[in-house]
């Protein structure tokens, strides 16, 4: 359409998501720790290990060109770079950290100053909507990651098509996202925790109930494992194995696709 949005509802969703993440940017990490009891750190570590970035079996010695979408505070990107350097001896690997929200990226930049990547030429910062990665060339990326981001996108199919476009043939799409708890009893406990405690914690710790209410609802609405796997396939990716790995009983899941 003329405004680049599919509908008014989509434009509204985008504005609401922008508001939520501007509100939570500063308290984002603390809140993640509270809400997930620290488990999100283990998931992120596992996510990165499972990708094994910087490994030389598939990519030449120039290192990996990585793109972390919805990269917010740099949480995933710093881990990816660490893994490239420490595990795979690939200090040449680089990453673009991209997010639609400048406040989240500003928080990431601030945090990078406390890491060994302060002002590092290995990191490039990009404010962009995952649905329109206009400044990222087609077939230019070895690894596309998105962690706890895609459920906030207005048009997920479009974002998946963009992921496909920017990846090189053989490049990997890897997504870490909340998913569906597979055990009904555990699911009941989990729902009580998320719908009951999380908005309350949001109110008490960050003084912002509404944003955390939104986060819980967005988790509930996001497609479950099989459906999301099929969306990845529909975007053109080849999906290895069954297509996903459940974490903590399916509270979160890792989905992967390879561009043929
Ligand atoms: N990846 C980080 C992590 O795992 O901690 C941050 C995840 S945070 C929950 C979600 C991020 O998605 C926010 O920084 C938000 O600004 C970003 N986001 C939401 N919609 C987006 C879009 N359409 N394109 C790019 N980023 C988006």
Q: Summed up, what is this model?
A:
The chain is of the alpha/beta class and 260 residues long. It has nine helices and seven strands, in the order αααβαβαββαβαααββ. The chain starts with 7 loop residues before the first helix and ends with a strand.
The structural domain count equals: 1
Query: What ranges have pLDDT less than 50 throughout 5 or more consecutive residues?
Result: 1-5
Strand coverage percent: 15-25%
Secondary-structure element string: HHHEHEHEEHEHHHEE
Shape: globular
The biggest beta sheet reads: 7 strands, mixed
Widest beta sheet: strand line-up: 3-2-1-4-5-7-6
Count of separate DSSP helical elements: 9
Enumerate the distinct ligands.
Answer: S-adenosylmethionine
The gyration radius over C-alpha positions equals 18 Å
Distance between the termini: 31 Å
């Amino acid at each position: 359409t003329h405004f680049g949005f599919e509908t008014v509802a989509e434009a509204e969703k985008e504005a609401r998501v922008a508001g939520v993440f501007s509100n939570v940017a500063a308290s984002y990490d603390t809140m993640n720790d509270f809400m997930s009891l620290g488990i999100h750190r283990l998931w992120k570590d596992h996510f990165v290990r499972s990708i094994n970035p910087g490994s030389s079996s598939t990519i030449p010695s120039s290192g990996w060109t990585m793109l972390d979408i919805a990269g917010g505070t740099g949480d995933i990107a710093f881990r990816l770079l660490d893994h490239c350097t420490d595990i795979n001896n690939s200090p040449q690997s680089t990453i673009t950290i991209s997010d639609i929200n400048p406040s989240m990226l500003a928080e990431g930049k601030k945090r990078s100053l406390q890491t060994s990547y302060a002002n590092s030429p290995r990191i490039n910062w990009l404010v962009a909507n995952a649905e329109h990665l206009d400044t990222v060339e087609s077939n230019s990326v070895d690894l596309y990651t998105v962690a706890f981001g895609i459920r906030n996108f207005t048009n997920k199919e479009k974002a998946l098509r963009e992921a496909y476009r920017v990846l090189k043939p053989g490049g990997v799409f890897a997504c870490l996202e909340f998913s569906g708890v597979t055990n009904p009893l555990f699911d009941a406990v989990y729902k009580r925790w998320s719908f009951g405690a999380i908005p309350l914690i949001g109110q008490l710790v960050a003084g912002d109930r509404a944003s955390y209410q939104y986060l819980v609802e967005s988790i509930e609405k996001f497609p479950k494992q099989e459906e999301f796997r099929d969306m990845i396939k529909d975007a053109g990716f080849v999906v290895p194995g069954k297509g996903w790995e459940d974490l903590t009983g399916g509270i979160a899941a890792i989905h992967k696709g390879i561009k043929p």
